[in-house]
Amino acid sequence: MNFWHMQLHPGDREAVNRNEVKKILKEKGVIGLGDQWPNDGGQPQKFQKEIRVGDVVLIRSDGPLALVKIISDCYQNSDNSVWFDLVRKIEILSLEGSLYKKELCTRQISQNPYPIRLLPS
Predict the structure, then answer these.
(1) Which of 34, 26, 42 is nearest to 8 (CA)?
(2) Residue 119 domain-assigned?
(3) Per-residue pLDDT at 106 exceeds 50
(4) What is the distance between the alpha carbons of residues 87 and 99, in angstroms, rounded to a whole number?
(5) CATH number, domain at 80?
(6) In a domain, 67, yes or no
(7) In-domain check, residue 71
(8) What domain range is 80 assigned to?
(9) What is the total count of domains within the chain?
């Protein structure tokens, strides 16, 4: 199992705020991104080929928002209600990112060398 992080917005963070991202996770049960964009750094290819079923993804939107587990292979999106070209089905593990954001984002990086840590279950 690998751990990843990503943001879900079509290049406009203000148009897709934390509540909108949470709604997509809960109602659509997917995460995704475009299939290409200028200077994409290979992100679509990583999403397609490197992320595996069972991997855990930290979803960010102005800081930590949710933890999800990948439960499907990557496929082309046919649902026009979200802008993603490439999608994967997910299981939501936690939507308590606001709590972690407050705890993890109150220190300077130099004082907090381990900003992501295993949380008790």
Answers:
(1) 34
(2) no
(3) no
(4) 27
(5) 3.10.590.10
(6) yes
(7) yes
(8) 3-111
(9) 1
Tens digit of pLDDT for each residue in 49-95?
Answer: 999 999 999 998 888 899 999 999 999 999 888 888 999 999 999 99
Reading the block at residue 18, the tokens are 């934390």
The reported pLDDT for the residue numbered 109 is: 41
Residue 67 near residue 99, CB atoms below 8 Å: no
pLDDT at 100 over 80: no
Task: Judge whether 18 lies within some domain.
Answer: yes
3-state secondary structure the chain: CCEEEEECCCCCCCCCCHHHHHHHHHHHCEEEECCCCCCCCCHHHHHHHCCCCCCEEEEECCCEEEEEEECCCCEECCCCCCCCCEEEEEEEEECCHHHHHHHHCCCCHHHCCCCCCCCCC
